[in-house]
Automatic annotation (TrEMBL):
This is ABC transporter substrate-binding protein. One of its GO terms (molecular function) is maltose binding. One of its GO terms (cellular component) is ATP-binding cassette (ABC) transporter complex, substrate-binding subunit-containing. It comes from the Bacteria. Residues 25-72 are annotated as: Disordered. Residues 1-21 form the signal peptide. Belongs to the bacterial solute-binding protein 1 family. InterPro entries: SBP (IPR006059). Residues 61-72 have a biased composition (Acidic residues). Keywords: Signal, Transport. PROSITE patterns: PROKAR_LIPOPROTEIN. It comes from Salipaludibacillus keqinensis.
């Protein structure tokens, strides 16, 4: 289970908050056709018979230039959050070079995803057509599809022969609602288990192994705790819960939007979460922990194990902020009864239903989420591709040792999405409430599952 121990440079470090990816097929099947009007034929404009060859050659070039000029010039607005890596600029320039009649203007959205979400909803619900293509958190597609904010992509996918099996299954599922595809996977992320390699030789295989090893080794090398996770009442708690639930074979919703959360598997998962939180291996204030609290404590050498996103790897190797540099490895999250499961993170790309240029918007989206675009963003921005084959590309593998690590790719392959629903924000809030009560010892795992079932069913029925 030991994974990668090399230093991952900050320039290509995976970050769930500041990095982005993209690219695609570039057949340009929808470009405006070249003008074939005979009036533009250079052969009709020859004035000097003695210079037929030279004149015709020059006029043919002029005709090509005129044809290019006759293509409709289109300007698209592409919106996404802040990208400190500069990869977005490189990506857009590459697209415009291959599509000279399309100009792409970048609109930077707030770094706070909640604020970005609310701005999109406000504009799209009003029928605003300013934004053509935008990046969406993996938890948004169903909501935006149900709201009528975005274009269905199946006809474009089928027409251009895009094989969705080339993408990691979880990333595709996140953009699928009611059997139709509304978003294309752009880059991905998944939860990992970090551990102190100067304390333990290998990562635990199961959650029970984790509890045992964390209890045995906490206190060594100055550590205070055995395990850190995100247990505060916020979205991170839902991600952690989804990982536990999936590892025990449970789920929250099925593909038909039936509520499946009240099951023996889910109850067993919540019981394991409670056992970990109530044990001595976690801090007494673990119910206040989010991602920053987790990485801060781990970087200070306070814990043997920690669950977090891949972005933390680069931080652990930065000697300016890490007291454990050179002594950290990571692995798949521990397994429950049904194996290991990692919560899916990352971003998708979607098209505004009100875009005045849907064909050109599709070309941009297809480019960003296809092989060429995703390769650009993987190399320049450090974003993990959603296309399996790119992990065999030598340039991608050289850009970050993480991309060459088989265990990491397996983690992405097995990443599970959060419940796909048009009311996901409401479902998340309901789950947070009941899970928090269970972890605080106010209700049992059985009661939490029953309450989630009842409240989610009521929300879906409204």
């Amino acid at each position: 289970m030991r994974i990668w121990k090399k230093v991952l440079s900050g320039a290509v470090a995976l970050s769930m908050v500041g990095v982005i990816a993209a690219c695609g097929d570039n057949d340009n099947a929808n470009e405006t056709p070249v003008n074939d009007d005979p009036a533009n034929d250079t052969e009709n404009n020859v004035d000097n018979a003695d210079n037929d060859g030279a004149d015709n050659a020059n006029n043919e070039n002029d005709g090509e230039a005129e044809a290019s000029e006759d293509q409709e010039e289109v300007t698209l607005t592409y919106a996404r959050g802040q990208d400190a890596t500069g990869a977005t600029n490189i990506l857009v320039e590459a697209f415009m070079e291959e599509n000279p009649h399309i100009t792409v203007e970048f609109r930077e959205m707030p770094s706070d995803t909640g604020q970005s979400h609310d701005q999109y909803v406000t504009e799209f619900s009003a029928g605003d057509s300013t934004i053509d293509v935008f990046d969406a958190d993996v938890i948004w597609p169903a909501e935006f599809a149900q709201g009528g904010y975005v274009l269905e992509l199946d006809r474009y996918i089928e027409r251009d022969g895009i094989d969705m099996d080339d993408y990691f299954e979880g990333t595709v599922d996140s953009g699928n609602f009611e059997g139709r595809q509304w978003a294309m996977p752009k880059f991905t992320d998944a939860g990992l288990l970090f551990y102190r390699s100067d304390i333990v030789d290998e990562a635990p295989e199961t959650w029970d192994d984790l509890i045992e090893m964390a209890s045995e080794y906490q206190g060594e090398e100055g550590t205070d705790y055995g395990y850190l996770m995100q247990a505060n009442q916020y979205e991170g708690l839902v991600v952690n819960a989804v990982e536990f639930i999936a590892s025990y074979g449970g789920s929250v919703l099925d593909e038909d939007q039936n509520v499946t959360v009240n099951s023996p598997e889910t109850i067993a998962a919540i019981e394991k979460m409670i056992e970990i939180v109530e044990s001595d291996i976690t801090p007494g204030n673990i119910l206040n922990f989010d991602e920053p609290a987790t990485h801060t404590a781990f970087l200070e050498g306070q814990s043997v194990f920690a669950r977090n996103w891949p972005y933390m790897q680069a931080m652990t190797e930065d000697e300016d902020q890490s007291q454990v540099a050179g002594n950290v490895e990571f692995a798949l999250l521990p397994a429950g009864d049904e194996g290991s499961a990692a919560g899916l993170g990352g971003w998708m790309s979607m098209i505004n239903r009100n875009s005045e240029h849907p064909e050109e918007a599709w070309e941009l989206l297809k480019f960003m989420t296809g092989p060429e675009g995703q390769k650009i963003t993987a190399i320049e921005g450090g974003s993990a591709p959603t296309l399996r084959d790119l992990y065999e590309d030598e340039e991608v593998r050289d850009a970050a040792p993480l991309f060459a690590d088989e265990e990491f790719v397996n983690t992405l392959e097995n990443a599970v999405p959060r419940p796909v629903s048009p009311i996901y924000p409401q479902i998340s809030d309901l789950m947070q409430i009941e899970l928090s009560r269970a972890l605080a010892g106010e209700i049992t795992a059985e009661e939490a599952a029953e309450n989630m079932e009842s409240s989610i069913e009521s929300a879906l029925a409204e």
